[in-house]
C-alpha cells in the first residue's frame, strides 16, 4: 500500500489535474460540495458528508441532450397541401438535430465515501440496463472512482444497515481505496483503472510498510463507532422485493406524511435519486433540449393534461419511499435504493426522513401483532 | 426495445416531416409523418407509441395509430387538450417535428391473438391505438377469426376515422361494426347510448379476446359489463396512459407500483393490472 | 413543557379543539418534527425544546380549512407570520386556537457540527426552562457548548419576547437579541458592486433549487407558484446557467417584499447554508428608510408601505439609485 503525507495533498490534486478533470469535495462559501478542482480551490476531504452527493459526477443536475436548429422556409410555394409523393412535400419548417457531446476524456472522482459509491451502483442498475443511457455510460466509462473511508461516522449515518462498510472502501465498487489517518493518506489501487491512475501518479507516493497496520487499526476504530450509532440496528424487516401489496394501503402513510412540504430537498441531496425531467431552453442559437433533476415530491411530477395525477402529498410521499424500499428492490434482485448516508436526516426542513418512515412501520407492525 | 437509433442515444430523436393532416373531429387531427427523404421513420408493432416533440414547446407520448402494414407513412391521431397538443394542432403540412420511438410493448398480434376471435371496444380518442391493431389484423385477415368492433363517442362529429370505418371496416370479411353515440343527434339514425350499455345490449359471447381503450370511466364500466357476460381478466387487454418523459423506464415518472407504463406497458392484460397497486 | 402538554390534552379532551399542531419527538435528539396531534395519547410524543425552531404558522393554511378548531403552538416570532397570513386572508382566525409558547432562543444543530461535534447520542440542557450549558453525549466523548453560541442566527436579532397574537400564553419568553439586525446588510452595502456580486455569486452557486426556502416561507403561499407554471419560461427546475441561480432568489425576494416578517425560516432550512435572509433584510431596511419603519405582521390591520400611497412617499427616482446604497 502507498501513502502520501497530508501536507502534500494539494500537490497531489495538482498532479491529478494535469492529466484528468478532478471532481472532488471543495469547500466554498463555508460549505463542502463536489466541484471541479482548480489551482487555488480548497480541497476538503475531512468533512464527512458533502451536502450534494457525488452522483453529480455521473448524473449532473443539468445535462445537454441535443440541440435543435429551426429554420422557417418562406412560403412562395403554396404550402400546406399534401403532395403526391411524401418525398415531394414542400418544407415549411426545417429542423436539424445536433446530439449533445458525450464525455470523451477521463476524469477522477476523488474522496467518495462508500455510501456514495454504492449510490452509483444503484444508478448503474437503472441507466446501464437496456436501453443503455449513453450519456451516463460515457461518464461511467471515463470516470475513475477514488473512494475514501469514513474517519468519524456521524449519528445520521446508517450505511451498515444496507451492507455497506464505511471502514473499507475496497469493498465498494471503486477503483482506488484510500484512508485518511492522522497526517497521511493511504492509497490502495483495486481495479485496472485504479492501477493505471496510480502508475501515472507514482512519483507522488511512497511504499509504506506501516500502512497495513495503520489501516487495520483505523478500520477497527471506524467499525467500533459505526456499531454505536443510533440507527445501526435499524431493521428492514417487512421491506424489500415483492412487498407492494403489504405496504401500499397501510394506514401508517397517513400518519407520517403530514409535515411534508413537497419541496424536493431530500431528492436532490440523495445519492440514489435519479428521476429526471426533459425540458427545452430556447436560445438564439437553437433550442437546447436538456434533462434536469426532477422530484417525485413535486405536485406536477405526474401531472397530465388529461387529468390523472398523484394529487395528494400522501400519494407522492408514499411513492418516494415505496420506490426506495419496495419497487426498486423488486426490479433489482432485492437491492435497496437507500444507502444510509443520512443526508435526508440532516437536511429535511421538516425533519422527516427515511428512518422515521421505517420506524413508524415497525412500530405499527409491533402494535398490530401485540393486539392479536 | 429496438436499437435502431443510428448509434445515437435513445433520447435523441429523428426529424420527421408532416406530410398530411386530416381534421377528424372538432378536436382531433390525424397527422401523417414521414422521414424527410419520404420513407417511414422506423418500424413498429401495433400498440407501440412514439414521442413527438415540437422543439421549444414540449414532448409527448402518442400511440401510433397506423398499422405497421402501412408501408408508406405513419399516423398519429392527436386530441387537443393541453399545451403541446394545442401547438401541434397549429402545425401545417411541411412543418417538421422530432419523433423518437417506438416505445413500449405491443399487442400480442403474433402470439396470443393469432387464430382468435377479437372484440375491440373503444370510446372517443381511445380508438387511436386500437386502429393500429385492427388494420394489422385486416391486412393479415387469415390469421385472425371473427372481428367485432364496438365504438362510441360523444356525438357523431366525435367519431374518429368514421370514413374508414364505414368504407373499409364495415365492408371487410367477417367483421361486425357497432357504432353508438351518447345522445340523440339529428342526421344520426344509428344506435344511441353509452358504450357499456350498448355492450350489454349486444351481449357478446366469451369465445374471444377483448381489447378495450377509452376514458377511464368507460373502461371501468365496460370491464364490469364484460365480467357479467362471463369474460375473465386473462381475456381482456387494454392500454394505460400516464405522463411520460423518457419513454424508456428511466426517468421514474410513469410507474404504477414497480412497473413502468412506458416500458412494461402500455399494453396490459387485466390480470396484470389487478396485481398493480391502486395508485390512480 | 409538561404544562403545555397538559393544556393541549385538556383542549382536545374537552372538545375546544379537534387537533393540535406542535412538534413530535424526532429520531435524533435535535430533529423534532412539526406534526398534527388528534388524541391525548398522541401527545405523549409531543416535545417542545430548544430545537423546535420550525415556524408552524404556515401549517394553519391547510389546517384552517378542516372541520373544527385547531390549536397551534406559536413562538413570539411565529405570531408575526400568523398575523401576516390573516392580513392576506390565507388563514381562518376563527378556526385557530393560538397558544403562545415561551421561548429563550432556538438552536441550530449546524453550529454544533461546525464546532466539530458529531456522533451525537443524546443532548441535554436544551429544555425551555433552563440556564446552563448544552451538553452533547457523543460516540467521540462528551462535548459542551454555550446555549448562546448554538442559537440560530435569527435569534440573535430577536424581534422581542411578546406574542403579537394569542389566545393564551404558556411559558416565559426572553428577548435574546444581542446583535444589530441590519449589521450584515450594512457590511454588504459598503462593498463595491464587484465585491457584492462576487459574494452573492459564491453563495448562490451552491443553490440546488430544492425549493425548501420557498415551501417553508409563510409569505410564499401562492397556489401555483410562478416557478411551477409551465406557461412561463421561469418554470425551470434547475439552474441551467448562473443567471438563473440568482434569478430565483431575487424574484422571490421581490415577491415577498413588504410581507416578509423576517422569521428566518428560509435560512434555517437551506441545505446549503445560503444566507437568504440577507436579501429580505435588505428590502426591509430599504422600506424602513424610504417609507418609515414598518414591521410586517406586527399589526394585522396596518397597511404595508408597498400598497399604501401617501404624499410623503419617496420619489421613485430616489428609491432606485443603482449600486449606490
What is shown here, in short?
Chain B is an alpha/beta fold and 280 residues long. Chain B is built from six helices and 15 strands.
Order of helices and strands of chain B: EEEEEHEEHEHEEHEHEEEEH
Described by strand count, sense and barrel closure, the largest sheet of chain B is: 7 strands, mixed
Overall SS class of chain B? alpha/beta
What distance separates the N and C termini of chain C? 46 Å
Q: What is the number of strand segments of chain C?
A: 8
Give the amount of beta strand of chain B, in percent: 25-35%
- Rg on CA atoms of chain B, Å: 18 Å
Would you tell me the overall average pLDDT of chain B? 90
Helix content of chain C: 25-40%
Strand content of chain C: 5-15%
In round numbers, the mean pLDDT of chain C is 89
Give the low-confidence spans of chain C.
none
What does this structure look like?
The complex is a heterotrimer of chains A (372), B (280) and C (325). With 372 residues, chain A is α+β, with helices and mostly antiparallel strands. Helix content of chain A is 32%, strand content 21%. Chain A contains eleven helices and twelve strands. In chain A, the strands form two sheets. Chain A has an eight-stranded mixed sheet with strand order 3-2-6-7-8-9-1-10. With 280 residues, chain B is an alpha/beta fold. Chain B has helices at residues 83-89, 127-139, 162-169, 195-202, 216-229, 270-275; strands spanning 14-25, 28-34, 49-54, 58-63, 74-79, 96-103, 117-123, 147-153, 175-181, 191-192, 208-213, 236-239, 255-256, 259-260, 267-269. In chain B, strand 3 (49-54) and strand 4 form a beta hairpin. The radius of gyration of chain B is 18 Å and the shape is globular. The two termini of chain B are 27 Å apart. In chain B, 55% of the residues are buried. The model of chain B has no long low-confidence stretch (mean pLDDT 90). Chain C has helices at 2-13, 59-63, 76-87, 109-114, 147-150, 183-189, 193-204, 212-216, 242-256, 265-269, 277-291, 316-319, and strands spanning 19-24, 33-37, 70-74, 96-101, 120-124, 134-138, 141-145, 168-170. In chain C, the strands form two sheets. Chain C has a five-stranded mixed sheet. Chain C contains twelve helices and eight strands. Chains in contact: A-B, A-C. At the A-C interface, helix 8, strand 11, strand 12, helix 10 and helix 11 of A face strand 2, helix 8 and helix 10 of C.
